[in-house]
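PROTEIN DESIGN WORKSHEET
SECTION A - STRUCTURE
LENGTH: 313
TOKENS:
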């Protein structure tokens, strides 16, 4: 029996929750994964998994074996890394998931710099605003904005995103310029709505001025659940938007957008890099995380120095 392959297959089945998803992530036939697990159980003389038609769960012995197997596989990966100088030149595949706007406007344009440093790392980059399951989807880490609700995950706060309120000149010509955040809750004004892909609920917007805080769900005729679609809706004159500084800056400088409610600040949101608690932070993942922390910090500070689109001169 190839005990290492069987151990790897077992760990992936536990994390993925099904033999089918585990087989897909390992690029193996389902029958091969099933045979590896059966052989492992026979060798250990214990049942590791409870199988149903819908899901696979671990037995108490399986849970104990999983914890030890994870540590052994992590140690093995680190050992192999040290032997082939992976700390100097990390190599291999990592799976990352990021929000659409971060992937499109921050990470992808700067990836040539990353590959100039680490040419042997292959990135599978999921770019969407949907919530993913790091364990079952076999994702090494995600970048997420907002306060985290899953306390079982390991999170590293890397920055915060700042927002400004803006609209197109054509929107202002048609509807006038809002003078107070509460104007956005009533006609003739409207905002572009953004709803949670998880709950389906339209999110509110927060405005700050000194000690004053106003929270509203703006009057809207359109709500979307994707940052790119949100921007395009605003550029189509469908409402006022709250955009990150790095998204809004070029459009403000070109005149496609103008700032409104200038004496009000939008509430910033924290940005985290998140990974599973049992997922070993390999050298290839570590250098990517460090690079992202550096990149996002630089981009956010650049946006603040440019005062969200002003020349700064």
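SECTION B - SEQUENCE
RESIDUE ASSIGNMENT:
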């Amino acid at each position: 029996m190839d005990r290492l392959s069987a151990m790897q297959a077992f760990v992936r089945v536990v994390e993925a929750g099904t033999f089918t998803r585990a087989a897909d992530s390992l690029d193996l036939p389902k029958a091969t994964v099933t045979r590896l697990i059966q052989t492992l159980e026979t060798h250990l003389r214990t049942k590791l998994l409870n199988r149903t038609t819908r899901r696979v769960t671990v037995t108490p012995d399986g849970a104990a074996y999983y914890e030890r197997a994870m540590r052994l596989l992590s140690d093995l990966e680190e050992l192999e890394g040290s032997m082939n100088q992976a700390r100097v030149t990390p190599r291999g595949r990592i799976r990352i998931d990021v929000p659409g706007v971060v992937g499109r406007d921050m990470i992808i344009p700067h990836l040539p710099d990353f590959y100039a440093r680490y040419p042997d790392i292959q990135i599978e980059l999921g770019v969407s605003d949907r919530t993913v399951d790091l364990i079952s989807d076999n994702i090494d880490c995600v970048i997420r904005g907002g306060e985290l609700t899953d306390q079982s995950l390991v999170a590293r706060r890397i920055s915060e995103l700042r927002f400004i309120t803006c609209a197109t000149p054509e929107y202002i010509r048609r509807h006038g310029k809002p003078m107070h955040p509460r104007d956005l809750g009533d006609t003739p004004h409207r905002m572009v709505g953004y709803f949670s892909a998880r709950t389906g609920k339209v999110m509110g917007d927060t405005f700050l001025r000194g000690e004053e805080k106003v929270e509203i769900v703006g009057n809207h005729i359109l709500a979307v659940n994707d940052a790119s679609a949100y921007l395009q809706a605003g550029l189509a004159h469908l409402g006022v938007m709250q955009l990150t500084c790095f998204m809004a800056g070029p459009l403000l400088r070109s005149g496609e957008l103008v700032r409104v409610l200038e004496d009000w600040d939008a509430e910033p949101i924290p940005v985290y890099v998140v990974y599973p608690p049992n997922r070993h932070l390999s050298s290839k993942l570590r250098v990517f995380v460090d690079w992202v922390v550096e990149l996002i910090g630089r981009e956010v500070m650049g946006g603040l120095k440019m005062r969200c689109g002003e020349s700064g001169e």
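SECTION C - NOTES
Confidence is low (pLDDT under 50) at residues 303-307, 309-313.
The radius of gyration is 24 Å.
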